[in-house]
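Handout, section 3.2

Students often ask what a structure token actually looks like in practice. Rather than define it abstractly, here is a full record for Hydroxylamine oxidation protein HaoB. The first block is the sequence as you would receive it.
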Amino acid sequence: MTASLTPNRRAQSRWFDRLLPPLGILLVTGGLVLLGGYAWLLLTPDEAPYRYQLAATGKVDDYPDLELEAWPDLTINQYDIHLEGTDQPIAQAWFGQRANQPQVLLNWKNETREPLLALDQKAAELSALATAIDKYAPRDALLLSWWDTSRQLALLTGRDVLFHSTLHEPLIVPPEWQAHAQAIRAYENEQTGAAADPQERELFLRFTQSLLNPLASGLADLRQLAGTRDAYLIVHISDLYKLGLLYPDKFGIAYKPYRLTGNLHGMISHVKTEMSNHGYYAYTVQSLSDELIRAFFLTDEASYHTLLARLLPFTSQPSPLELASPRLIYQQGGYWVYQLAEKAPAAQTQHNLQPAPDHDKTTDSTHLTDQVQ
């Protein structure tokens, strides 16, 4: 369906689809209902309503699920995240660190039903991406990506990035926590040891606004940011959600999780029904695990004609492989990597991180099987 939602319907749709359950109720593993943290908020408005509790510290071999064997020099710190006054963690986090450098979030496991603080993804996707970049990208290449991805790739590849600090944009918290955003940001800065840099924040604003622009002008803006260096643009399907949180009036995005039951066609039918019922324009999916996916829906046609949406695969829309510029050079899970600019003459051989898969732009199942693994 290509009919756009009205502004009111767009706002209502995003409100319903994005926010955590009403009254601040978080449902976690085991079916526990956690209300204590929200009562605590009313009493301590200047503190974050949760705490990182160090659960374990070890080498990469101690955490095989992270698939970080190629980086044996890293120290891994595992944390449980608790609401004040509760025993069950609402999330788990794994940070990587070298010597006395700031630690970097490498993996996040959310135990609630909605995105919280960070977004889940398969750990293997990041390690595969970093391995490809480390093997094939020039040592002086510049990587352009969302601030959290930038920090991860700087740690794992040693390549230069635009963003080294924790910018906390967007701040992914339930509405009950918004009044405490300043305290949450301060606590996250304390946790990582890499406070937000004002100049990087301004640069990140330019980066995200470029992703909102149409394809040609957005690319021109990003190439201006990159200058004359070899540059690669790295986007992830979850960036759609984050861009929508930053610019809710300019980029319409909704999401819904689906559990894989072995009946792929049945799940596709459910996704299409959701799209039809809400009048969404197109959808794509992200694989969270072997049992769970998350579908992202563009709520209107205008949102599709942004740089970010054009660089990702959406049903019934042209494949990113058909773009003449930028050139897709790598795709792994939710990551899509494009060569943004190269300092060598155009006639010189271009760098390839890995051949990208051949996508069929006309079928929903092709996009689903690319992302659901």
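Discussion prompt for tutorial groups: Confidence is low (pLDDT under 50) at residues 1-43, 344-350, 358-373. How would you have guessed this from the sequence alone?
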